[in-house]
Write a structure and sequence with these properties.
The complex is a heterodimer of chains A (113) and B (116). Chain A is 0% helix and 58% strand. Chain A is mostly beta strands and 113 residues long. In chain A, the strands form two sheets. In chain A, strands 2, 4, 5, 9, 10 and 11 form a six-stranded mixed beta sheet that branches. In chain A, strands 1-3-8-7-6 form a five-stranded antiparallel beta sheet, with no helix packed on it. In chain A, strand 4 (30-38) and strand 5 (44-51) form a beta hairpin. Chain B starts with a strand and ends with a strand. In chain B, a hairpin with a 2-residue loop joins strand 5 (43-51) and strand 6. Chain B is globular, with a radius of gyration of 13 Å. Chain B is mostly beta strands and 116 residues long. In chain B, the strands form two sheets. In chain B, strands 2, 4, 5, 6, 9, 10 and 11 form a seven-stranded mixed beta sheet that branches. The chains are: A mainly beta (113), B mainly beta (116).
């Protein structure tokens, strides 16, 4: 059974710091991995989607990597800003399930001014 | 603007009552999904629909029902059989036509359901 874990559960950093969020999954048979951002009381905003054949994706200050064989993905945020404060969720799309995403429980990020 | 609209934003349910959460999308997406999110946890799939008049159970479908009469709409009913309905409910959609699609899912802003 596919399980997705995100560590740490919470992270507090000063503004300007580069940071890495971690996501691990137990079964490497996935179609893709997606990173989302969730603001308090809001829905999810898709940040980056990495296909199983890809190693990384970049969007602005965000870079996501995927190492399928080891079951790991990282989300790198460069030059963090207070506006980056949110919960970051990763989700995998397993090959043994139709259309389903399996989510981690998220990392709650606080960027202090 | 294209997007997904969920209503209401907050909903209260009395004992023994059925309540319906609305989800409408104008993205022309084929697939729609309902997820439940409990505090400090990830999302769990309740139901999904790949096409009009068809839907499938997710991991936690007991106590819930859905319909897909129109492409744009995928309402979720929380029935009295759902004994622990307090949660944040999120609707999503995507352009998926096949299982291997790599299209991202787009989410609405959610409905927070509480018991009176």
């Amino acid at each position: 059974k596919q399980e997705v874990t995100q560590i740490p559960a919470a992270l507090s950093v000063p503004e300007g710091e580069n940071l890495v969020l971690n996501c691990s999954f137990t079964d490497s048979a996935i179609y893709n991995l997606q990173w989302f951002r969730q603001d308090p009381g809001k829905g999810l905003t898709s940040l980056l989607l990495i296909q199983s054949s890809q190693r990384e994706q970049t969007s602005g200050r965000l870079n996501a990597s995927l190492d399928k064989s080891s079951g790991r993905s990282t989300l790198y945020i460069a030059a963090s800003q207070p506006g980056d404060s949110a919960t970051y969720l990763c989700a995998v799309r397993p090959m043994d399930s139709s259309y389903k995403l399996i989510f981690g429980s998220g990392t709650r990020l606080l960027v202090r001014p | 603007d294209g997007g997904i609209t969920q209503s209401p934003k907050y909903l209260f349910r009395k004992e023994g009552q059925n309540v319906t959460l609305s989800c409408e999308q104008n993205l022309n997406h084929d697939a729609m999904y309902w997820y439940r999110q409990d505090p400090g946890q990830g999302l769990r799939l309740i139901y999904y629909s790949q096409i009009v008049n068809d839907f499938q159970k997710g991991d936690i479908a007991e106590g819930y029902s859905v319909s897909r009469e129109k492409k744009e709409s995928f309402p979720l009913t929380v029935t009295s059989a759902q004994k622990n309905p307090t949660a944040f409910y999120l609707c999503a959609s995507s352009t998926d036509r096949v299982r291997t699609s790599n299209q991202p899912q787009h989410f609405g802003d959610g409905t927070r359901l509480s018991i009176l």
